[in-house]
Amino acid sequence: MVRIVEWAAEKPQSKIVTKFLARSAFPEEAEKAAAEVLAAIRAEGDAAVARYVAKFEGAHLTPKRFRVTDKELSAAEAAVSPDLKRAVKDAYARVMRFSKASLRKPWTMKTPKGGTAGEFFSPMDRVGVYVPGGTAPLASTSVMTVTLAAAAGVKEIVACTPAGPTGTPNPVLLYALKLAGATEVYRVGGIQAIGLMAFGTKTVKKVQKIVGPGNAYVTAAKRQVYGFVGIDQVAGPSEIAVLADGTVSAQWVAADLLSQAEHGSGWEKSLLVTQSKAFAEEVKRALFAQTATLSRKALIQRVIDRDGILFAVTPTVEEGLELVNRFAPEHFEIMCKDAAKLMKGVRSAGAVFAGAWTPESAGDFVAGPSHVLPTGGAANMFNGLTPDDFRRRHSFVAFTKGDLAQTKATIEAFARVEGLDAHGRAATIRFEGPQ
Prior knowledge:
By secondary structure, this protein is an alpha/beta fold. It has helices at residues 15-21, 28-44, 46-57, 70-79, 82-102, 139-152, 171-180, 190-199, 216-225, 250-261, 277-291, 297-305, 317-327, 339-343, 360-365, 401-418, 421-428; strands at residues 3-6, 107-110, 116-123, 126-130, 156-160, 184-186, 209-211, 230-231, 239-244, 269-274, 309-313, 331-335, 351-354, 391-398.
């Protein structure tokens, strides 16, 4: 069912809206499965990885076959049609351009007595990227992750993707990985891929950080290996919110809401916020009409049956924006005449798409920023993936004698309060005796 409800910030909150805004925590079964598989990989290495690939993916691989060979990558490239190659190259070029422009620059400032302080950055040495390939081979994720690592200067970029019973990953996905800069590709998916990258085995050296989206089991595994490696974020099913004032076609808005509902888990969420019940009714009719024509209509119906699509009518656009901020969606479309102005009021959203000509799918495939974004309300505290997530930040200080002399009393005071004599002595000693 797709419900249309009224919502206002100062009125008692609708139970329907409250339930919609809430997202469940990690499923217990995913947590248990992740713990079991990860423990086995830590203890047994390659043997456990091979066993779980056979159990969950249906492919019987020896450790020597985990890695996709250069010959297979070349064959995949040859199998991709020219039009798909052009599409991948277009997306790659745009993402690389955006990535390079977004990298934080080193900077310095003068200290009061002639020294310097600032920040500089160094790329990680070896990172892991997870690219889903279960319900759909996400070739775009290859571009939206590996390209960022390459732009950051990472030398070793490991990619894992499920290959199913055949053990052969999708050729477009492989082509995209190679073009984007992956240096190693493994036909391993699921929890076992996260364990392989996080702990390392005799066959595969461990990485420093793992990024990329995945299902509930992959997400649970990423959370559990945090500390052994860095991770980008924990993410769940896809979601979108559309704030529409009626100036953009109801047909367009319906299409955008469906773009996330078709992902396949059944737990996706699509929220329309508008100020007109009549417009909401028009979008609802268009949504059902379009659903009937789509190849994934059965998957979308699961979302509808689980109340994953909701339309909220608010008194004003500003209150509509407040509702979206409380939802903290992965994707937020502002389909209003004053989109650029309204964007200044956004507090919680993974990525914002402003104006009638910016469907969320442009961000998924080609616009430039990564489509790896926080979900489940995590946009309240996490950002989307950036090239700087693949770099280490280093602060530095280069004091002169005058700087240390100026700050010595402060250092000594803190050392006394905290009972850290050696801290204070490290400053004091420099001004005692010959220098």
